[in-house]
Amino acid sequence: MSDELQDDEIDLRELFAALWDGKLLIFIVTCAVFLFSSAYLHRAERSYTVSVTLRPTEDQSSAGGNLGGLGGLASLAGVQLPSGGATEFITFQAMLKSQEVASRLFADENLVQRLFAGEWNEGRKSFLRPAPSTLGNVKRLLEPLLTGEGQGAYVAPNAARLAEKITGAMSVSEDKTSGMLKLSMESAKPKLASDLLLALIRETDGFLKERFVISGSEALQFYQQKIAKARSREHREALAKLIAIEERKLMLATRDGPFVVEIMMGPDQSLRPTSPKSSLILALGLVLGLFLGAAVVLLRKAFGGNEKKVSDS
After folding, report:
1. What pTM was estimated for this model as a whole?
2. CA angle in degrees (0–180, nearest 5) for 194-199-200
3. Residue 49's pLDDT is what?
4. Taking residues 159-168, what's their average pLDDT?
5. Do 179 and 55 touch, CB atoms closer than 8 A?
6. Is the dihedral of CA 292, 293, 296, 297 positive or negative?
7. Please, what's the b/e burial string for 57-87 (b: 16 or more CB within 10 A of its CB; e: otherwise)?
């Protein structure tokens, strides 16, 4: 047992001795990797974070609260309670990244051309496949070999691609305490990100407004048919209150202005770039350089030792 401990101590001593002997090489490799990290930061494109904070409209919140107190009346009248503002707010969050809303955004040709600027050909006034980069050519050659899938045909920007782009670029978070919704997007073009967020909020809210006008009109017609056939006074009173609530919501949906959400703050842009993170990349470059330098030294010692043993034999 003591012999094994002694061998371990000798191995550790040899390891540290080898690293100390190769300290100059470790220093050179570390400096090279650190300088490479610095060069990357000088060439990297800076991105800023743009955010917008939303809250449910007061009219929607009050409408939802009024409907919530009519559960017993709706049950008495034998009808289904209409959805309130809270449900519309949840639907708003779900629809932000949908293709339905993206198709409405796609009608803004100027915005779409700015979002897919690398594919827009001003001379032909159409979208074309961008010229592949060196890395893109390597990927195109290796992908069939590694995955068995060939390169797909070029698909010009459409609602599906726009929805995919929004999903990848935008993050959505909800403050459970205040009920507010925060949309944020990191981009090298903060003005474009701001325009996209505002257009996305406007089109999503407009989509829900139009959909509610249709469903609300149908619900109102249904309640009016029910009240015409109601025999008891309690049923007629319950249906009359539901009709009044539905008419109020329809009035809110047909007016100008926001329907489900309104902007509380923003668009706000970060003062400094949020990507790439300079301090993190430099620190990683330093650590990676140390490990890489140590690995080179130990490999040189291992192969050098093997060569010496071969020559001695």
Report:
1. 0.71
2. 100
3. 92
4. 91
5. yes
6. negative
7. bebbbebbebbeebeebbeebebeebbbbbe
